[in-house]
Specification:
The complex is a heterodimer of chains A (115) and B (239).
Chain A: H1 3-24, H2 30-48, H3 50-60, H4 66-114
Helix pairs in contact in A: 1-2, 2-4, 3-4
Chain B: E1 12-18, H1 22-35, E2 39-44, H2 51-57, E3 61-64, H3 71-84, E4 89-92, H4 104-112, E5 118-122, H5 134-150, E6 163-166, H6 167-175, H7 182-193, E7 197-201, H8 219-235
Helix pairs in contact in B: 1-2, 3-6, 7-8
Classes of the chains: A mainly alpha (115), B alpha/beta (239).
Chain lengths: 115, 239
Amino acid sequence: MTRVTLFSICASTALLLYILEMVRRRRLREEYSILWLAGSVVILVLSLKQDWLISIAKTAGIAYPPSFLFLVGILFILLILIHFSIAISKLHQMNKKMAQEIALMKNRQGKKTDE
Amino acid sequence: MNPGMEGTPPRILVVLPAYQEERSIGGLVRSLRERFPYDVLVVNDGSSDRTADTAREAGAIVLDLPCNLGIGGAVQTAFLFARDRGYNAVVRIDGDGQHEVEDIPKVLEPILAGRADASIGSRFLGEAGYRGSIPRIFGIRFFRLLVNLTTGYRVTDPTSGFFAINRPLIEFYSHHYPSDYPEVDAYILMHRLKSRAVEVPVRMYERAEGKSSITTYRAVYYMVKVTLSYLINCLRRFG
């Protein structure tokens, strides 16, 4: 077992446990934990199952198999970031609608107190 | 104008989006109310100064946004208000005195006559010689080209925020209105709706008070953002 795979086993296990604990304590919503969990599980499995990693890397034409782990990690980070951008856009839209609704309600309320 | 509206005078709302305009908004609202029988609505876009109070004291209806939404979000709030209260036409002018209020009837005329769904004031038509900074003129030329190439409209002033729209467009814009720099984007929306848009000559001035929302260093961001959302709007479906 190379040192890089040992490192990736430790790191992905720690990440997996941390995410699960955050979800358990309701500090992280389930829907935002899915990509994190999937990413750490994939990396953990590929770190433990050396022969899977080697054969996938060979098929993909990657000379140094552990670098496939980095590729998987980067891809998951990209997915998570895109997911966040979408979530922020949704929050932005909701925030705008709420602000507009509050302004309209304040106007209606002001009229009532005038009468 | 709208079917079934014959006999009753059309209800017209003049909309002024305002952010930190306490020094100019009061006078502007008063001059509008003295000259025209229209309701005046000020959308206070989260100002920290006395914009809302000043406008209210001058006799405007005020919509007070709890946070700054940007010009598109603020103007859309006015469209929501106009839709809910049954206004037949909305005139939108700047809250900082850049637009000549005397030109409002000219901008409204094609809407009231039923000749157009949107009537946009242009600072480049007629003899109203407008002088602006070089990046601004460059941006206007660029967007003019973009709009003229992708829609059938012959536009001279695509970034003009001095316009009037009729009831169907009020209803559409209350659902879909671009958030940041809405005027150029609005052309694609109107094109997709097959709206009739006309330009009328108006006078515009350099700002008297406060700062323009478009500073020179933000011009690049403005161009990229508007071009992107414009092109994406070409791909969208509206229903």
